[in-house]
């Protein structure tokens, strides 16, 4: 029997870019310790997807970095939360903007001393082009890091979650209002917007290069990669949605 046909719209070709130790660790986690090659099957919102992963070291020569970014369908830029200056990260995001490549940013190491999620968002915001939209909100940082709140569906958890998350909920509320304002161009005070509406808006703006979803890596003790895989298939384009002539369909 032949292999089952795969709907091209359910394919996602993703390039992890960052320090090679960080990207290798992330690749192993996404594959849940399995083999380093082959696609990752992942189901989100009732749809089966196929995720192809590639890695690119941020240390390679600039010309090679730009060439690889130019032909990527979508990238995930790995952003260490404790690094104050990241000139190579800024170059990566500028290259992605120049070549209209959709991207996510994953902030890692939020449990490390000196970690600062807001600083990472400001660094991304200072780069011309896409606007960073925080779809996650960390609960603390450094030794006090206690996990992540998913901002997009958070109002479905209220008011019980407001009591459970304590002071972290107020910070997540602010990020929710910023997200609504950036994605839907509505008054950020509005609440209770269906998560599907926000997801559609984030995906559209990411595909056209006007937004960069910013995610938090979770509690290392839990090591849950589901939120990142969900974000990959929800926000990054399939080969059918990539318009650059350099791209080809990867089935």
TrEMBL record:
Keywords: Elongation factor, GTP-binding, Nucleotide-binding, Protein biosynthesis. One of its GO terms (molecular function) is GTP binding. InterPro entries: P-loop_NTPase, T_Tr_GTP-bd_dom. It holds the Pfam family GTP_EFTU. The keyword GTP-binding applies. Residues 63-238 form the Tr-type G domain. One of its GO terms (biological process) is ribosome disassembly. Gene3D superfamilies: P-loop containing nucleotide triphosphate hydrolases. This is Elongation factor G. It comes from Nocardia neocaledoniensis. The lineage of its organism: Bacteria, Bacillati, Actinomycetota, Actinomycetes, Mycobacteriales.
């Amino acid at each position: 029997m032949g292999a089952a046909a795969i709907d091209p719209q359910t394919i996602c070709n993703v390039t992890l870019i960052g320090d090679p130790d960080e990207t290798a660790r992330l690749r192993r986690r996404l594959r849940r310790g399995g083999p380093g090659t082959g696609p990752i099957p992942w189901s989100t919102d009732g749809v089966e997807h196929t995720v192809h992963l590639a890695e690119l070291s941020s240390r390679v020569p600039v010309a090679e970095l730009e060439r690889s970014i130019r032909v990527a369908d979508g990238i995930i830029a790995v952003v260490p939360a404790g690094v104050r200056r990241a000139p190579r990260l800024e170059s990566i995001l500028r290259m992605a903007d120049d070549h209209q490549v959709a991207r996510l940013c994953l902030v890692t190491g939020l449990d490390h001393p000196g970690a600062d999620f807001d600083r990472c968002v400001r660094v991304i915001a200072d780069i011309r082009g896409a606007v960073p939209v925080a779809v996650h909100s960390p609960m603390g940082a450094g030794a006090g890091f206690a996990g992540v709140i998913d901002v997009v569906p958070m109002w479905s958890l209220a008011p019980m979650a407001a009591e459970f998350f304590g002071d972290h909920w107020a910070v997540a509320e602010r990020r929710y209002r910023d997200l609504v304002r950036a994605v839907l161009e509505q008054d950020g005070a509005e609440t209770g917007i269906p998560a599907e509406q926000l997801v559609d808006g984030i995906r559209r703006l990411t595909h056209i290069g006007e937004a960069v979803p910013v995610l938090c890596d979770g509690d290392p003790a839990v090591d849950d990669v589901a939120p990142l895989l969900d974000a990959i298939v929800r926000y990054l384009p399939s080969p059918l949605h990539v318009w650059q002539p350099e791209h080809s369909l990867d089935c």
